[in-house]
Fold:
Amino acid sequence: MSGASAKVARTLKLAEISSKIFGTTFNPTGARTGNYILRQNFRGEQMVRYYPSQMDGDMARVSRISRLMGEKYYDPEEIDRLNALDKRKARGKGGPKKGEGKRAALSKGKKR
Structure:
């Protein structure tokens, strides 16, 4: 039995030395370290370039707050959106009224 444990000890020592030489991590127990995440390239700059700026959300908040305070805030995009909604509702393309949606229709059919 001592021969087998000596062989395991030599193998562990060899793995430790090779990890020092090649700059890898030595993890004899196989514990999860999360090292693969730390080795990945940082993606922060690319994500900042990909996603739109936060100003769009800030403008929406400003218009909402100004509406609550009773002030008039001119936002041409919001006015265009509201006009388009009015046109769709006039053609009967708007969303269903509360309680007349798909789920309500399904539940009404089951009760009968």
About this structure: The mean pLDDT is 81. The two ends are 78 Å apart (CA to CA).
